[in-house]
Amino acid sequence: MKNGARFKAVVAAALLGLLLLSGCTPKGGEQTIEIRLGEVARTVFYAPQYVALSQGMFAQEGLDVQLATIPGGDKAMTALLSNQADIALIGAETSIYVYQQGAEDPIINFAQLTQKDGTFLFARQTQDSFEWEKLKGQNFLGQRKGGMPQMSLEFTLRKHGIDPHKDLKLIQNIDFANVASAFGSGTGDYVQLFEPQASIFEKEGRGRVVASIGVESGELPYTVYMAKQSYLNTNSEAAQKFTNAVYRAQQWIATHSPEQIAEAITPYFKDTDLAVLTSSIKRYKEQSTYALNPMIEEKEWKNLQDVMTSAGELKSPVVLDKLVNPSFAQQAISSNSTGNTEPPVKKSTTESTDAGVGAGGSS
């Protein structure tokens, strides 16, 4: 190759490299901020998060979000406390547990993703109609003691006059990540399942959804983005950008159909049928599971502590402002609104408030 041609080739390669690099740089020439995010499970329950990733909302804020699935709230919190994660998506109860232990660097909740329990009561045997009394004496494959799924279940059972530790044959020796597979292998008559696992099991003929724990237990900060106080103090810009993206994703979810949402999150559920994803999202939208904004409200915080008290897991009440920093959510809402600084009211993302699962239907 002649020197002139070689020089042109080198210049072209350099220009291509610059173009590729510029494509990864946020608008305004800002440097990309890396955030290590730990989620407690891979579930359609977290659809807004996957929308923020797949639709480039985090990237638009100049964030490079590195997502890792760390099964179990206790394990995800351990990752956060040991600085293996910057931000974690876990139940807000875990921040209270850390606070109760006298942490010098408390875990602060700063953006809510879901406002109801995301599990469904799943029965192995097909039933013409479901009554809570039918649970008495049955083998129930439970969740981890002190975790939100188990506490929400116990809260619901007591509301229906059932003592979970006396009236059920409760099985709690199976790790969170293995509960669904254990039920699929024949353990238990009843189990709590997140979507899309509930819909997958229905499709496989392993039983049916008979009730929604989310509808039964009410609104609470079920899954929340949280970080150490020290991290938020030194990385407030990153936390704000993160919350901005989450809020835009929540609004996107509210204005798009289950079919559109399913298409958007498919990259995170490559082994799940699109129809199952769609029906799972429809269930969650119909019962207003996804929060419409990242604010944690006082009534939700109170309900969370009522659930914890019912389970015997709350040593003493914790006021909202001890463990919740609303400033990031407030700023996200304000900067993305059109002259209205009031947070949107958290309400159903569809016209219907019926859970649509009384008969186990997923359509």
From TrEMBL:
Against SUPFAM superfamilies, the record matches this protein to: Periplasmic binding protein-like II
Signal peptide annotation: 1-27
Record localization: Periplasm
The domain of life for this entry's organism is Bacteria
Composition skew (Polar residues), residue ranges? 331-341
Q: Which keywords belong to this entry?
A: Signal
Establish whether keyword Signal is in the entry: yes
Q: Where are the transmembrane segments?
A: none
| Family of this protein | Belongs to the bacterial solute-binding protein SsuA/TauA family.
Q: Give the protein name, as stated in the record.
A: ABC transporter substrate-binding protein
